[in-house]
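Suppose a colleague, Dr. K., hands you the sequence of a protein chain of 82 amino acids and asks what its three-dimensional shape might be. Before reaching for any lab equipment, you can write down a predicted structure in token form. Begin with the sequence itself:
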Amino acid sequence: RGCINIQFFIKKDSENRILASEINPRFGGGFPLSYYAGGNYPKWIISEYLIDKEIEYFDCWKSNLLMLRYDEAVFVNDFKNK
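The predicted structure, expressed as tokens, is then:
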């Protein structure tokens, strides 16, 4: 158990196939976004596997946070979609 990065592509042809291009046991490139939104996965993994601490349910994600990801990470706090 742990983090996994899976990349899929949809091939729009007569079969509309879904193709997996990569499956890696690692944090993906979007990890900084989930971390900024409140998901401290490194802490949870260390607590669970090295300290043998049960991880409690988490639902304290940042609200109204617009996140964009390309070569840089952009964060907009208190985003209101109008």
